[in-house]
Amino acid sequence: MESVSNFIPDSVFLTKGVGRSREKLSSFEEALRDAGIAMYNLVSVSSIFPPGCRLISRKEGQKHLRPGQIVYCVMARSESNEPNRLIAASIGIAIPRNKEHYGYLSEHHCSGMTEKTAGDYAEDLAAQMLATTLGVPFDVDKDYDQRKEQYRLGGEIVTTREITQTAKGDKNGLWTTVLAAAVLVKRFR
């Protein structure tokens, strides 16, 4: 059996969910259920996309997990009980061209941002973190589309992606929780 300190995932899947309830914790549980990850013991980790790792579908990733298993993830979460308050949770990914180098996962949680704006922000943040690690020029004063083209043209970043969940706060004041997660998986061989 592989020790926790030697555990290096070979796959990542993205998921998202929304939940509503009178209780804040129950709202979070509902969001986890919606995202399909409520049956795992989730451990939040920082933002490294492991070398050689690949993106897989949620369905494929869940085949390699068991209920009750300790599962590592990068999670963004936002909640509100303010009626009609727009909340968002996003995960951004930047994967380097060189598969031997690690990439980045970013989490962004906010209110008042649309799905597109929050998703673009998270994706841009992951790319910025990777670009600075790789020495790729990254001008934060350029608009999002210019920066996106800039880091792709640098030739070192091959893939960027994001997943975002938004929701408006329940009109009757129930707790509303949104989450997005990158779930780290070691596939069975």
Radius of gyration: 17 Å
- Helix count equals 4
CATH evolutionary superfamily: Pyruvoyl-Dependent Histidine Decarboxylase, subunit B
Question: Could you name the CATH class?
Answer: Alpha Beta
Strand order of the largest sheet: 2-5-9-1-4
> How many E strands?
9
Approximately how much helix is present in the residues?
Answer: 10-25%
- Average pLDDT value? 90
Derived from helix and strand composition plus strand pairing, the structural class reads alpha+beta
Uncertain runs are none
Q: How many domains make up the coordinates?
A: 1
Give the SSE string.
EHEEEHEEEHHEE
Largest sheet: 5 strands, mixed
Percentage of residues in strands: 35-45%
What is the fold named in CATH at topology level? Pyruvoyl-Dependent Histidine Decarboxylase, Chain B
Question: Secondary structure elements and their pairing?
Answer:
Layout lengths: L10 E11 L2 H12 L5 E4 L3 E2 L4 E3 L1 H5 L7 E11 L5 E11 L6 E9 L3 H20 L9 H10 L3 E12 L6 E11 L4
Parallel strand pairs: 1-4, 2-5
Antiparallel strand pairs: 1-9, 3-7, 5-9, 6-7, 6-8
Helix pairs in contact: 3-4
Question: What is shown here, in short?
Answer:
With 189 residues, the chain is an alpha+beta fold. The protein is 25% helix and 39% strand. The chain contains four helices and nine strands, in the order E-H-E-E-E-H-E-E-E-H-H-E-E.
